[in-house]
């Protein structure tokens, strides 16, 4: 098959694009793949890249320009090369004519249930709202037109099923993958030495928070408030991620809460594994996620996880058994941090081991196996509408595991 793939950033440090690099490498071994992207780090020389000119910031402008330019370049490509693609794969409605839409966020539901203007009264907040709002205008149409809608968790599948009439028979759950073996701390890696490089003492309790951006949604302001309640504890917080302009704002948040000396900001990093390995626990009190890949990575790296019951997380972890669940507000986060600090080393190790065991199923091999089945179905059903027993095989099983 000839497959066209549409996504802004298909790079290892992008949560969605990084996951799909595994998929694209596998597809390239069996199909002819063309990627339409602003940035692309190809995992296979056989993949053709059509560069889409678009600004990366602000996100709402990226969305608008990409919609127009990617669509134009696609049709120019088809005309110039007299090519016809059998399958068009897009992410979150970034083009409307895709056969397969990968949904890693439900923007309409997020704006209705979780958006808070009091937390986002800034130019950045307005820009983020515009991005979500623009996505919300097209996602219903994009998912209704698609032949399949692939989502990473049952929770977001339920949101889309409720939002879009007639989409239920198209929904497929394929969890995001990560390299479980690559997350293990290498033999001989000196944890004390690496901590000393950052000024972290061997007797300090180090909590780690990792995010590419969207720090308000992911609960960092509430976490900083909670940290203020640990004045009597020898605790530090590592905040991993954020561009320079974002880190300046994060430092202001820490100063406002009076915890500047207890927070270390690393800025953007392409590979956060070393920060997992040098920490004592991972904290991620997000208000909304489709899968929360960083929680799975932290657990896979052997860290106890303190997080909220967001999509994906609530399906894999159990409170007090494989993770500590909190609510996305400062009082509950503080209680969760204290709960962890009160644990013995044996209890922490057991929590980490059970969390690590819980995420071992989310492997690259599982992703590829399930995506191969999806593309096999598409290959067999080219030229026909999805109906009957063929579609039934791929109906999403919406199981609430809470």
Per-chain topology:
Elements: E1 2-6, E2 9-10, H1 15-28, E3 32-37, E4 39-40, E5 48-51, H2 59-81, E6 87-91, E7 100-102, H3 107-113, H4 123-145, E8 148-151, H5 154-163, E9 171-173, H6 191-197, E10 205-210, H7 220-228, E11 235-240, H8 244-257, E12 263-267, H9 273-277, E13 281-284, H10 293-300, E14 305-307, H11 313-316, E15 324-325, H12 330-341, H13 345-359, H14 364-380, H15 388-392
Helix pairs in contact: 1-14, 2-4, 3-4, 7-8, 7-12, 10-13
Descriptive report:
It is a single chain. With 402 residues, the protein is α/β, with parallel strands linked by helices. The chain has 15 helices and 15 strands. The chain has helices at residues 15-28, 59-81, 107-113, 123-145, 154-163, 191-197, 220-228, 244-257, 273-277, 293-300, 313-316, 330-341, 345-359, 364-380, 388-392, and strands at 2-6, 9-10, 32-37, 39-40, 48-51, 87-91, 100-102, 148-151, 171-173, 205-210, 235-240, 263-267, 281-284, 305-307, 324-325. The strands form 3 sheets. It has a 7-stranded parallel beta sheet with strand order 5-3-1-6-7-8-9, with helices on both faces. The protein has a 6-stranded parallel beta sheet with strand order 12-11-10-13-14-15, sandwiched between helices. It has a two-stranded parallel sheet with strand order 2-4.
Task: State the fourth-level CATH superfamily of the largest domain.
Answer: Glycogen Phosphorylase B
Task: Estimate nothing, just give the exact number of structural domains.
Answer: 2
Helix content: 40-55%
Number of helices: 15
Order of helices and strands: EEHEEEHEEHHEHEHEHEHEHEHEHEHHHH
Q: Tell me, briefly, the overall form.
A: globular
């Amino acid at each position: 098959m000839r497959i066209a793939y549409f996504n802004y950033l298909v790079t290892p440090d992008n949560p969605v694009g990084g996951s799909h690099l595994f998929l694209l490498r596998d597809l390239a071994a069996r199909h002819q793949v063309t990627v339409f992207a602003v940035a692309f780090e190809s995992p296979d020389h056989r993949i053709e890249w059509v560069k889409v000119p678009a600004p990366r910031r602000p996100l709402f402008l990226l969305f608008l320009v990409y919609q127009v330019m990617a669509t134009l370049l696609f049709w120019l490509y088809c005309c110039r090369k007299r090519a016809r693609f059998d399958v068009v794969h897009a992410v979150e409605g970034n083009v409307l004519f895709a056969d397969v839409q990968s949904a890693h966020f439900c923007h309409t539901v997020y704006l209705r249930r979780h958006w808070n203007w009091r937390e986002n009264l800034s130019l950045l907040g307005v820009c983020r709202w515009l991005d979500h709002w623009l996505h919300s205008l097209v996602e219903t149409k994009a998912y209704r037109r698609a032949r399949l809608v692939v989502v990473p968790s049952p929770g977001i599948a339920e949101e889309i099923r409720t939002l879009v009439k007639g989409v239920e028979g198209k929904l497929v759950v394929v969890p995001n993958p990560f390299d479980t073996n690559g997350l293990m701390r290498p033999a001989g890696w000196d944890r004390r030495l690496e901590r000393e490089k950052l000024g972290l003492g061997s007797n300090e309790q180090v909590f780690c928070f990792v995010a590419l951006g969207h720090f308000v949604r992911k609960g960092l302001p509430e976490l900083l408030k909670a940290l203020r309640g640990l004045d009597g504890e020898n605790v530090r917080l590592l905040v991993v991620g954020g561009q320079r302009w974002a880190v300046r704002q994060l430092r202001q948040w820490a100063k406002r809460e009076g915890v500047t000396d207890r927070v270390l900001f690393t800025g953007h990093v392409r590979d956060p594994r070393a920060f997992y390995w040098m920490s004592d626990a991972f904290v991620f009190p997000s208000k909304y996620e489709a899968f929360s890949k960083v929680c799975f990575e932290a657990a896979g790296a052997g860290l106890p996880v303190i997080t909220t019951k967001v999509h994906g997380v609530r399906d894999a972890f159990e409170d007090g058994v494989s993770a500590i669940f909190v609510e996305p507000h400062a009082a509950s986060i503080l209680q969760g941090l204290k709960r962890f600090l009160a644990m013995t080393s044996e209890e922490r190790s057991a929590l980490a081991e059970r969390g690590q065991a819980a995420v071992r199923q989310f492997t690259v091999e599982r992703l590829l196996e399930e995506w191969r089945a999806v593309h096999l179905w598409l290959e067999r059903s080219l030229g026909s509408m999805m109906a009957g027993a063929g579609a039934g095989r791929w109906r999403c099983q919406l199981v609430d595991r809470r």
